[in-house]
Structures are given as C-alpha cells and as structure tokens.
Amino acid sequence: MKYIFVTGGVVSSLGKGLTAAALGTLLENRGLKITLQKFDPYLNVDPGTMSPYQHGEVYVLNDGAETDLDLGHYERFTSTKLTRYNNLTSGQVYQTVLDKERRGDYLGKTVQVIPHVTDEIQNRILQITEQSKADVLITEIGGTTGDIEGLPFLEAIREFALDVGYNNAVFLHVTYVPFIKAAGELKTKPTQQSVAKLREIGIAPHILVCRCEQPLNKELRQKISMFCNVPYEAVIEEKDVEHSIYEVPLMLQRERLDDLICRLLRLDAPAANMSHWQDIIRKIVAPQHRVRIGVVGKYIELNDAYKSVYEAVNHGGIANDCGVEIEKIDAEEIEKYGPEKTLKGLGGILVPGGFGERGIEGKIQAAQFARERKIPYLGLCLGMQIATIEFARHVLKLSGAHSTEFDPNTPHPVIALLDEQKRVTQKGGTMRLGAQPCQLTVGSKAAHLYGAFVVQERHRHRYEYNNAYRSQFEEAGFCFSGTSPDGKLVEVIELKDHPFFIASQFHPEFQSKPNAPHPLFRGFIAATHAHIHHRPL
Ligand code: GLN
Predict the structure, then answer these.
(1) Which neighbouring-strand residues pair with 483?
(2) Which residue, judged by its Cα, is nearest atom 8 of ligand 1?
(3) Does residue 382's CB lie within 6 angstroms of at least one atom of ligand 1?
(4) For ligand 1, is residue 358 a contact (CB within 6 Å)?
(5) Residue whose CA is at the smallest distance from ligand 1 atom 3
(6) What is the C-alpha separation between 291 and 440, in angstroms, rounded?
(7) pTM (2 decimals)?
(8) What is the pLDDT of residues 379-414, one digit of tens each?
C-alpha cells in the first residue's frame, strides 16, 4: 500500500477534499485501486448532530455512517465504496481511548496524546489498509495547518510515514496563493509560512498544490519551489474552475500531478485515459438544452448545505445534455410573497431534505404549486413528507393534516413516528440510516426510470408515512410506487395525472455520479425539459 497525505494551509475552504477526490480519479484511471479517508479534528463523534450552518451537508454512506461532505466528493469522483471507517473524528479517537482507559487496557500507564491518541489514529490507517486491499490510500486531514486540534493527526501521519519509509508515503499540501489587487500580483508569503509551520512539526511536503485565481508564472513557481524546498515540478497550479468542479481532475492531469505521484511512490501505471471525463465536461460547458430548476430549502444561502442535491441535479443535466441553472429559493420567501412570484418560470421544483419547522409552510405551497400547475416535482425525504401533507390538506381535504414533527397534536398525522423511534432518547446516530432495500411497483414511473424492481437507497430520517391513510390517498390518485420489501414503509410516491411528480423517503442524491447520473434525477431533468418545451415525455 502506498500513502498520500493531503493537508491544507493558509485558509480553510480551499477544496482539499476536491483535490484529494480529483487525484483519486486520475490514479483510478491509471488502473490503480484506490481508496480515500478523511480525518476531522473536531470533537463531535460525527457531523450528524451538527447544524448545516456549522458543517454543511451530512453525507450518508451505505452502512448508515453520517459523515463529512468530502466523502461525497470521494464517492462521486471515484468508484470506491466507503464505510464508517473512512471518516475519523477526534471525537471518535478520544471515545476509543477513554473506553480503553476505563477497561484498564493501558495497564496503569499514563494515557497521553503521544503515543495513545496518535496510535489510535494510525490504527485507523492500518485498518483501511487491511480492509480495502487498495494500491493507494489518500488520507485527507481536515482543518488548516497551525490549528491546535489538528496537531495529533499531523504527528500521527508524520510517524506513520517514517514507519513505512521513503517511496511509500507522500505529503501533499494544498495551499493558497492570493492575488492582491492593489499590488496587482500573486503573493507567495502565506504559502511559505504555512509550509514553515508544517516543517516545524516535522513534515516536509513533497508537493504543493497552489490554489489561485490567476495562473502561476515561471518566476512564482521558482520562488515557491526555492523558499518551500520542493522541486519546481512539484509546484502544482490549481486555478479556480471556470464551469464545474469536474474540471479539476483534468486540470491536475495537465499539471502532471499524477505522473509526479507515481514517480515518487514508484508506481508503475500507464497514463490515465480521461476521454470519458472530457465528454462530461463538454456536456457541462456546451449543453444542447437549458433548464431552470428551483430548489426550495431553508439553508439556501449556504452552498454546502445541499451539496449532493445540487451535484445530482447537475448529473441529471449531464444525462440529458442539458445545462441546469439552479435557483435557490428560500421557503420563507414563498410564505412572504406567495408561490406565483417566487416560483415563476421554473422548469421544475425540487424540495430537498430538512429538519425543523422553519419554512415548512412555504415548502407545502411549493408542492401545491407544482401539483396544480403540472410542473415537474422531485421531493427528497422531507420533500416526500411535504408532498404528502399537501395532498392530504388540499386534495383529501383533511384540514390541519401535518407531520407530528411539526405539529404533535395534528388531527391528521399523515407523517408520524414509528414506535421504535418513539423510544429513542439519544440524538446521535439514532435515525433510520443507510442503505435499505426498496421494492418498486410494476408499472410505476419510478420502476420505469430505474429499470429495476428492487433498489437500494440511503436513508436519514425519523418520521414515516402513516399507513392508516394509505387507501384514502390511493383512491385519490396518490400512488405508492415504492415500499420496503415487507410493504410496511412507504419509500416512493408519485401522482397519476401529472407529467412528473415523484418523491422518495430516501436520499437518491447520495448515489449519483457525473458518469452515472441517478435515474430519478435523470427523469426529473428530462421531464422539466419536456415541460418547458410542451413536449410529451
Ligand atoms: N425531518 C424529517 C424526518 O426526520 C425528514 C428528514 C430528512 O429530510 N432528511 O423524518
């Protein structure tokens, strides 16, 4: 196994995760088996309990782990299937160390950051090494060099690299080269200082990936090379992308990053053929069609909060050779100004997942607008619950119908808690999580789109469709097109007399990739396209 450690310097939000994922794409296309792992220095056990404002989206894996959104990039950019062991937080490390201490495993020793915490971190690298049987493991260390909480992770990878020896581990540092407008130049000092900080800890990076808004010229590369003690060809330019994040692998290939990595790690792998990836970019840059989709949410000012949703919508666009303009609509604005004003001219409406009461009525209005005006609608998790409540109130005339999450005393709890969820008292990791089978109904639109009758999709929710109302809904044209195999849990719903109104209790967005767009998103974009051109689907 060869190891690549990705650290970040100067500022956060440089796109370390994207860089790691894009490098994964390149190595995989050179025929290497790769896997990726993320270390997060915060003390939460996982991000499942954090607000999207703090953390962005919580990405859910097949095994139900609630993880950092960078794991979403890893899965979208590569073919690796990740598990809960691919995301390690300080919280998990300390929990394990403290459990061991209480059990007496340390046999009377003083328990310390070095070696006990650092050993635990290294154990996780070894565990992935054994489980994955990959050729290369890319480990991304969250946070920025210089953070106090990141130190144990940096110390652990320093020791680890020493153990595995030369040619087996590479340190790649993602740094920032800002453009100072007043001076009209790019500045290398922050990079120099951040590398100095790393070297203080004992890590001398082999490669610097320089994030910049302007190209690095020869002099700048030479300067960075000299002051940071890395060879000239190891100063890699990573400019802001023009159209799409999927350009990053191609950009890094042009900079010969993967060649350099293979040379440093003594990996004998042919050059990557990226022609299929170039095709994807071509479709993004110059699509045949264009459509505007409204995503009605609560955290819309935050780009990261619905990351996988936005990506999956774009994948649906790629599948249809259709450029998608995503309009982020605040559900509370719909409440204030009405759907007519806020949702005008959209090709399709999407209501993603969410928790808490704020904006719920606006989302219900959006679902009603989509149903009545026959605008394509895709509901994800909360988006399905919203569609159910809307239908109950306005078609079945069950006034006051609601989810017990938002109104515990509703006369018509069309969405409610299962008994097993009622007994749950802890918040972390207690939802219905991860991949579950779903049986699709013969003849349904969903089955047609999937081209299958049993699918596996990922979940993250507590509340469910209330079966007491099933026949009433069904008689009015609300179809249950997917359920758990025992038929007890509603997984997908769709409307009969509507060009495209589909919603799922699961999160299909977590399994969509640019080179394998998810069927529901493919179908949604195809429908929006047909809708604006008044064509049959
Ligand atoms: N709040 C809803 C529930 O817990 C929906 C969750 C979601 O959209 N992820 O069931």
Answers:
(1) 439, 490
(2) 353
(3) yes
(4) no
(5) 461
(6) 29
(7) 0.93
(8) 999 999 999 999 999 999 999 999 999 999 999 999
